[in-house]
């Protein structure tokens, strides 16, 4: 994982510098800077709309007693989009704008959610959870029998004797 991050931190700036130089040669420095600033403003505006839409879908799922796993992953993707769109550059803006397109973002989010479910089923994720219809805790003992029970909490209040003992 460290090597992948290191490669990203080295390769992305090289791509951005190359694109700055090429586009700057073609249209000039002023228009190039203007495009960078304009794409940041457009991207942040689109990000706000998409974020509100994703939040609304997550709330609808919660009202229907469904876990909004895909929407939560979409929220993380949108957070990354915001960082990419605020980072000056054409490559990062392109990736950020692509992830703002709902069908693309939703497809990526579903892949991430499904991959997480497979890891949980294979025992690579959280132990004691199953992945059918989201994350639902599976309470079982060693033999696989389901343990079911109820409890009530009783508040006994304070006795005068208990108060006297504390004095």
Give a structural overview.
- The chain is mainly α and 167 residues long.
- The chain contains six helices and two strands; from the N terminus they run αααααββα.
- It has helices at residues 2-27, 29-63, 69-86, 90-100, 102-121, 160-166, and strands at 129-130, 136-137.
- The protein has a two-stranded antiparallel sheet with strand order 1-2.
- The termini are far apart.
- The relative contact order is 0.09.
Proportion of residues in extended strands: under 5%
How many β-strands, per DSSP?
2
Classify the secondary structure makeup into a structural class: mainly alpha
Q: From the alpha-carbon coordinates, what is the Rg to the nearest angstrom?
A: 26 Å
User: Average pLDDT, to the nearest integer?
Assistant: 79
Low-pLDDT segments, ≥5 res: 125-141
Taken from the alpha-carbon principal axes, the silhouette is elongated
> SSE string, helix = H, strand = E?
HHHHHEEH
Give the biggest sheet: 2 strands, antiparallel
Give the count of helical stretches. Answer: 6
* Cα distance spanning the termini: 60 Å
Topology:
Elements: H1 2-27, H2 29-63, H3 69-86, H4 90-100, H5 102-121, E1 129-130, E2 136-137, H6 160-166
Antiparallel strand pairs: 1-2
Helix pairs in contact: 1-2, 2-3, 2-4, 3-4, 3-5
């Amino acid at each position: 994982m460290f090597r992948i991050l290191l490669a990203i931190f080295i390769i992305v700036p090289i791509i951005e510098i190359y694109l700055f130089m090429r586009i700057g040669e073609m249209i000039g420095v002023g228009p190039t800077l203007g495009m960078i600033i304009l794409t940041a403003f457009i991207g942040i505006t689109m990000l706000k709309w998409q974020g509100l839409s994703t939040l609304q879908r997550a709330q609808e799922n919660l009202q229907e007693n469904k876990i909004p796993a895909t929407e939560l992953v979409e929220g993380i993707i949108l957070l990354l989009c915001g960082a990419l769109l605020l980072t000056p550059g054409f490559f990062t803006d392109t990736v950020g704008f692509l992830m703002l397109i709902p069908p693309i973002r939703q497809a990526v989010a579903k892949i991430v959610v499904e991959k997480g479910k497979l890891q949980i089923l294979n025992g690579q994720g959280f132990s004691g959870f199953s992945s059918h219809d989201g994350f639902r805790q599976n309470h079982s003992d060693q033999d696989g029998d389901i343990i079911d029970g109820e409890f009530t909490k009783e508040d006994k209040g304070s006795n005068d004797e208990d108060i006297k003992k504390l004095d």
